[in-house]
Amino acid sequence: MAVREIRTFGDPVLRTPCSTIDKIDDGVRALVTDLLDTVAFDGRAGLAATQIGHTVRAFSLNIDGEISYVLNPEIVALEGEPEPTGEGCLSVPELWFPVDRYPRATVRGIDLDGNEVVISGEGLTAQALQHECDHLDGKRYLSRLDREARGEAMRQIRSSAWF
Fold it and tell me: Rounded CA gap, 152 and 145, in Å?
């Protein structure tokens, strides 16, 4: 099992836009194993490559015990009207804030064999797809908060034991 340490707020890798994976090699295969192993714990809905220190477009999901991954994910559809949804992040432990997210989302990418993968869902799946794609674009969910909530989040981060 290759469970990796999760990078936390303040680590510059979390603000780095990720590169497309051009070649699937042993390094990419090992990354996918690490993503799957690291996300496979209760309470973990998703994990982006940046959260374990890699700046390539890949993430894993753990929705209702079903673990999956996608390489080179791109959001291809967002449906409905954005609504506030309680959200947290493994890279910002212990914080929980409402974030406007679309209720339905679809992501397209590839698997380790280069086959197309399409993941669609609503609720937690839609939220996780949007959250993980934000990570791969170098964005944290805190950047989606209004000014007052972001200020409160920063106060909580500065006073946390992990920061």
Answer: 10
Q: What is the token pair recorded at 117?
A: 């993968």
Tell me which residue of 99, 98, 104, 107 sits closest to 81, measured CA to CA. 104
Does 132 qualify as catalytic in the annotation?
yes
- CA distances (Å), 149 to each of 11, 16, 60, 103, 160, in order? 21, 23, 28, 21, 16
Element (H, E) at 72: strand 66-79
- 95-121 pLDDT, tens per residue? 999 999 999 999 999 999 999 999 999
The rounded distance, in Å, linking the Cα atoms of 113 and 159 is 45
Task: For residue 157, give the H/E element and its range.
Answer: helix 147-159
Q: Is the pTM of this model over 0.90?
A: yes
In the set 5, 116, 132, 152, the catalytic residue is 132
Instruction: Compute the C-alpha angle 88/90/95, nearest 5°.
Output: 40
Reported as a single tens digit per residue, the pLDDT across 48-87 is: 999 999 999 999 999 999 999 999 999 999 999 999 999 9
Question: For residues 17 and 10, what is the distance between their CA atoms, to the nearest angstrom?
Answer: 15
